Amino acid sequence: MNITIIGAGRVGSAFAIELFKKGYKINAIIDKSKLKASRLAKFVDCKTTFNVLTQRIAENSDLILLSIKDDDLIKFYSEVKDIDFRGRVLVHTSGLLTSEIFKRYKVFKKDCASFHPAQTFPKVSYRNNHYLKGIYFGIEGGERASKLLKNISKRLGSNDIVLSKNKKSLYHLACVISSNFMIVNFYILKEFSSALGISEKRFYNVLKPLFTQTAQNLHNEGVIGSLTGPIIREDIRTIQAHLDLLHGKFPKFVEYYKTASTILSEVSRKQNKKFNEKLISEILNK
After folding, report:
1. Rounded CA gap, 140 and 233, in Å?
2. pTM for the structure as a whole
């Protein structure tokens, strides 16, 4: 199978490297930066790099994978509106947008899909970082394209979840909360480590057993069964001490603490029917 990849950034480069390692032929690498495209092409034995997609490249491709940011994906039609994609599979990797983005293209509906890796990509790949192995891909779109993507996912050593168009945005929100919002907690901890006079790396190591065991608890016990701490214990003195400390030294985090604690109160009520949610609410809102 000949694959053309549009976008040589973090996601596109991972696809290029890992698909190549699994025996797929990379037909062309296309990026706004010819330098980035050329550099990536060297690692996937690809002799064709361009900054624009042409009819000739499209005709030599079985699958065209667009791995560019959403705003560029929306604008992309103006660059390729004259290209005939019929007979090719046209796929993008956006988590939010659906295969409907291709409805104006000269392509069969059955050959259009979205193929979103539920993964985080911290850097551009110029070697096999195995980012696409052992993960889930969110697949949405036409029958022929979806079948092909399922096979690719399996060959990459991963799994898939099939999504309807109207559920795609909720799926993506879940991905953002599970990854990007986690960074919020660790940014706060970074601020705390500085105030404690401990290096970020060492503080991470101190707390690592705590958050890794929490992750294991979530896997084994589910969300409701995993909660511990001052909220579920109705430990008013501790909660007030936290609020006083935040007001005094970290006022920008006060509302975050209150919002998170309010949600944890709901979890606590589901874990313990006798939980005094009103008591917690009063201290958080006074």
Report:
1. 43
2. 0.91
Q: Would you say the C-alpha torsion 140, 143, 148, 151 has a positive or negative sign?
A: positive
Do residues 220 and 275 share a domain? Answer: yes
CA separation for the pair 53, 63 (Å, rounded) = 13
Contact 258, 218 (CB under 8 A): no
- Is 69 a residue whose pLDDT tops 90? yes
Q: Report the relative pairing of strands 2-6 and 112-117 from DSSP bridges.
A: unpaired
Judgement on whether residues 231 and 273 belong to the same structural domain of the protein: yes
Q: Are 131 and 183 in the same domain?
A: no
For residue 181, what are the domain limits?
171-285
pLDDT of residue 42: 95
Residue partners of 239: CB distance under 8 A and separation at least 6:
230, 231, 261, 280, 283, 284
The answer to whether residues 156 and 176 belong to one domain is no
Structure letter (DSSP) for residue 254 = H
Number of domains in the chain: 2
What is the rounded CA–CA span in Å between residue 108 and residue 54?
A: 18
Q: Return the SS3 of 225.
A: helix
Instruction: List the CATH number of the domain containing 192.
Output: 1.10.1040
C-alpha of 24 from chain center:
24
> Residues 144, 217: one domain?
no
Query: Which of 41-55, 107-121, 167-181, 225-239 is least confident?
Result: 41-55
β-pairing, 136-141 vs 63-66, is unpaired
- Same structural domain, 91 and 188: no
